[in-house]
Each structure stands twice: as structure tokens, then as C-alpha cells.
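Table S2 (continued). Query chain:
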Amino acid sequence: MIFLHTFRQPLRGLALLLTALPLGLHAQQAGPAQVSGKLVEAANGQPLPFADVLLLRAADSTLVTGAQTGLDGTFKAEHLALGRYILRAQALNFKPVRRVFALSAEAPALALGPLKLAASTTQLGEVQVVAQKAVVQQELGKTVINVEKDLSSVGGTAVNVLQNVPSVAVDATGTVSMRGSSNLTILIDGKPAGTGNGGPGPRLDQIPASQIAQVEVMTNPSAKYDASGAGVINIITKKNKKDGWNGQAALNLGTRDKYAPSLSLSRHHGKATWNMGYDGSDRVNRTIARSSQTALLTDGASNSSLFTTQDGTGRQHSRYHSLNLGLNYDLSKEQTLSLSVEPHLEKQSELDNQTLTQQTVGSPTVITQYGQQTAEVNVKVLQSSADYRHTWEAHKGRELTANAGLVAIDANIPVSQLLTGGPKPAGFTQAQRVNAQIYFGQVDYTRPTADGKGKLETGLKLQTLHNTGSTAMLKPTDNPADGFQPDLANSFDYNFTQLMPAAYATFQRTLAHGWSAQGGLRTEATFLNGGVANRNAAIDKRYVSLFPSATVAKELGKEPGQNRLQFSYARRLNRPDFMQQLPIQLYQDPRNYRQGNAALLPEFSHNVELGHQMNLAGGATITNTVFARFTQNAIRRVRTIDTAATRTNNVGVVTRESYDNVGTTNSFGLETTWAQPITKWWRISANGSIYYSQIAANALNTANRAALAGTARLANNFTPRKGLDVQLTGDIRSTVLTAQGRQLPSGGLDIALRQQLFQERAALTLRVSDLLNTQVRRTELATPELQTSLYNKYETRVGWLGFTWYIGASKPGKKIDNGPSGGGGFGG
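Corresponding output:
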């Protein structure tokens, strides 16, 4: 599924909205009274601009209204009812001040003298200590990356954040992989919100990094989590329950027509916390693609080789809008209910120009054709969910949670391709329509043991996906003047339903002498049924599987996490989806199409790892992990020649991309993460992995292959003066084996600067992604029948200038927030 992003938000409208927020609070008051005053620094009497002043009702301490000081430190709150109030004045890095006063009919206007706020030296000390904690923390069964405390988390979206996460790699197209596998389960706040690696729902490059607090990486997840994928990435967003209005507004401007506004607001009052957010982008991206291949064609009687090339340039204009509306309500001290609705709208226009050649090997004749592909994509996504949480005050640790939700998708994807210059017109017009609904529900219960050293977790989950779609194909007539005619052989309507019930139970226990253990069992069933109307193409798959998991850890140091050794095991599943199994042709261009494999089997793997984390004096952290993965019925993409289409379509070599179980694949590797403060103003962090992979390509009739592969990343974070952060990061990814060839190395260098302004009320960020413009995707395929070289260059070198304004009690995190990275585009 292809999704887009876009929006162009006027600054004037954003300013009006921010101005209206405090007015809305004042409108709730209808009294004749007012209070004014001035906030100054206790040390030198200097005014405190942009500080927050909250007025609370003295009787019950509920919030009445709020104000913010101007540049001269003054404030005024009007239209107040008569009565007694508590004034609370607060500013970043200063101790709050409280005053109790009364407004009466005799004295309805009160002018407070200068209120002196003392510097909070203790608070500053605490912040410094927290910042020295390990950015990467090992917990039982997972690794937690504290994004807010990590200056190496440069980026404007979740993709950029994941680039800085150990065990995870992101290529030039934005595809996320873990230890060489892109088959992942990606969650948002623990919920299957439909977001994934090219799966339905909003893409990862549409989730702003400024909304992310932590990332949990589970390479060997416990039985509590879905068994699908090489691992689980859980993106945890920020929560704000401070009184009054809080949040931030940002505008990012990128080179060559790129814009990305965002607004995030929350208001906590009494038992309710309201959340509202908007994210948008309006981007133009450019791509370059080149390919060459030699194909051996045979009809049983004779053989011939055909050499083809294809060069193209593309331009994609993407527009994206996303709203996020939510309510968190405390039903009681022990019960909470949360509701959220997130509508998304995506549009994209694409234009690609191509030059194609074909030549029979040994012949001097070269046929040149010129192609143009256009696409207009419209996607609507609606996500909604409800969450319930029950705790027991008398039984600490006992918890019942439940959530249910819906992801509805409506997509319209018309694509047109026309080739000229050949023996006769070639090309196609293809209109795809997709309508999908994902329903999910889950109940989890946690019960600690009586002694508090263990806990039992159990849960049930049900997820279903219903998808209906159609593809209407037109092909050119022999006479160009007649235009296109229906291609019934490649037009179809399909529908399918996938039902996945699951249940699990896990138990963990803290043992004597620093030992702890966790074990669990999960069962998942898959019921997949569907087909193509009026065709003999149906899918009906049913299977039930068990997935055990276990983790054992030993604390070797005096404090938890100081010196830790951990071993874990998990059985995992790669469940093929409907489109991977449906044997129908979906053309990408006249020379390439995709087709499912009805005989495709699910892929199962056994995953083991042994990890060690050590926190050294001076704030240094070193983590080493040895891992192995043994996979059966490994699913891989396979490209073959469609000889019949090649001989009849007059467009050169036509290739079919499908999926197959290639046999057994094994990988063994070592992963290392190191973080070290060099000086007070310079911190360095590095992570890398190297693994040995084996592919037994039984289904491809090729020899077994094996090779070493790895990734490495180095980040330097500088704070040359207070309020200024500078970061320089570089990463590299080695050659990686594929089922029929290899993906060649790639790497890049990023630089970012952030300057805090107005006493941390705002931040200005400058970032250049892929500074040397080296991020490319190059792939080689080599089989006896087909030798192919593919080159794709996305617009990865982009300069971003961003401005962020922090509202209320919000403040900049310990990282550089800036514009999204370049890249993307149709099919990316």
C-alpha cells in the first residue's frame, strides 16, 4: 500500500489559533475583577518573559485561567469572578511562587508587586544527573531507548528516530529492518494501529519525532506480543497531564519545495486531559532510476539473449494532512478511559519520464522507446480506538487493561504508462481501488505474587482484516488514434478476510543472588480466505501455531542494570499476506509486474541471543549481544522472466516478481552499542552489528550461499555553549545477500544544529540530511537466466530549517527536533 503526505499551513492561521487559546479560557469567566503583576529574577531583578501564571480557585484548587508574561515580565488576567484565588507563577529553571489573594466588590482590581523567582539550582542538578543515565537501558525481555535524553536522535519523523536505534537499520527508501529482516511488527503505544513497513495505515515518516518519548526494541519479544515478524518495535508517544494548556507548534521548511507544519496541544483540567494535534506536509521529491539486464530467452527449440536498459527521472508532489483528537478521563482513582480519533488524508501526483532500449545480443540493431508514467493517488485513513485501564490501590501492580479499535482505509490509485518509438504503441492504464478495514481488540491482566517478586500476565486478542479491491486495466490498440481498450485478462475484483485470534500467558520472577527469569507461551491461529471474482484463483489457509519464549538474566553489579547478563529465546512467525499469495498480475511498468504465489507457506524461525550490558564510571555504557536466527520456509522475493510476454509485448524483457519459500536460512551475529561522554560539551555514541548469513535456496535451483554483512553508526554530539546543540552523525550499511543476488553498500552523513531561544520557550533548528549525497539503493541479481543491475537515487540531501514554539509547561527535549528527512515518493 502506498501512502502520501501533504499540507501547506499559513503562519497567519497558526498564529490566530494560538492567540485564541488563552482567550477561550478567559471567555469562561464573566466577572468584573482582574489581577496583574510582574515576575522578576530574585538574583538580579531582571524580568522573566514567557513565564506561566496559573490562577486556581482557593476552595478546591481547580484551574480557573492562565496567563503568560510579556517581554517585560508583566502579566494580566481579566474578567475574573469575585472570590479567593491561588496564584502560581512558574518558569523553567526557577522555583515556583504561590500567592493567595481575594478579589472583592470593594477592591476588584489587584496589582501585585514584583514577584521574585529564585533560580532552581537543585532542579538543574537533577536534570544533569538524568542526562547521564544510559540512553540504552536493558530490561527483562526488551531494550528501551530514551529518545528524549538522546542527542543522537536527530530527525523529524519516526523513521529518523529509528535510524538511531541499535539493532535497527533504515535504507534510502525509508524501509526499516532489524538484523537484516524487514518483516517487523511496529506498534504505537502498544496498539496495532496499522502502521508498519509498507503496511496499511499512516507511514512511519508521517509520525513526528517530537511526539516520541521512548522506543522499545524487542528482538526476542515475550509471549505477550504478536509472534509475527523478526521482532517488535514499540514507539511510545509523549503524554502530558500538566495543568492548563501545553504543547508546541512547529514549522519546518525544506529545500526545493518542502513544507511541514505541526501543532500539538493538550489541556488537563480536573479528571480530563484533552489532546489535539495536527501534522501535515507538502513536499516535492525527485528520483533517478537506472537499470540494465541481460535475459536468456528460450522457447524449447532455440535460445537468444536480449540486453535492455531503462533510465528514468521522476517528480512526486506529496500532500498529507493528519488530525489527532483524544480524551483521557479518570473515572476514579483506579479507572481510566481514553478515546482517540485520527483522520488522515493523503494525495500524491507523480510524473516519470523514461528512456528504454533493447538489443538482441550479437545484433547491431538497437530499439529505443520513450515512456511516460503518471499517477494520481488519493488515500483516506480513519483510525479510532478506545482504551480502559483498571488498577487496584490496595493491590499494587495488579492491572486490567482493554483496548479496541478500527482502521479504515479507502484508496484510489490510477496509473498510466505509455511507450512510443517502438514497432507499435505499448503501455497500459491501470486503476486500482482498495477498501480495507482492520478491527482489533485486546484484554490484558497482570497480577503480582503475594511477595511482590513475581507477576503473572495473561491476555486475549482478536484482529481481523477485510479487504476488497479492484484493478481495471486498459491496453493500447494497434492504431494509436483509437486510444486504449479494456484488457479483461488483467482486470479483476478481489476480496479477502483474515482472522487472527491469539492468547498468551507469561510469568516472571525475581530469584535469589541477582537472578530473574521470564517464561511464556502464546498461541495464534490464522484463517485467511478470499479470491478473485469470476476466476479460478482462491486462497483458503488455516493453521494454528504455538510460540514459546523465555528470558533469564543475572545482575552482576551492585545496582540493577549496572552489570547485566541476559539470555533469551523466542519462536517467531512470518505470516504471508493475501497479496503475496494471490496469483494475479499487478504491473509496475510495462517491463515489470508482481504476482502472488498460492503455494506460499508461512515462515517460522527460532531466535536466541545472549547479551551483556555494563555501565562504567563517567557515564560510559557498553552493550554487547550475540544472536542467532534459524529460519524454515524462508520467504523471499524472486524475479523471473516472463518469456511469452517478452516476445509479444514489444517492450523488451518482461520480468515477474513473486514470492517463494527458498528453504532454510541461518544468520549469526554480534551487536555492540557504546556511549561515552568525552568532555562536558562532547558526547560520542556508536553502535554496529556484524552477522553471518546463510541461504539454502532449494526452490531456486541455485547453490547455497553465505556472506558477512553489517551496519555501523557513529554520532558526535556537541554543546559548545548553553542552549546550542550540534550533532554530526554518519552511518554505513554493507553488502547484504538477497535470494538471487545482493544489495550493495550505502551510507550517509547528517549534520544538525539547534539553538534554544527566549529562555527555552522556542528553538531554531538547521539540519542537512545526507550531506554528501551518498544514500542510494543498488541491487544486483544473478541467475542463469537473468543478470540485472538496479540503481535508485532518492532525493536524500535536503536542508531543513525549523522553528518550534513551546506552549505552557512544555519545553525542548534533550534532542534536536527538526524537519523530516528527504526521500519517499510513489512506491517508496
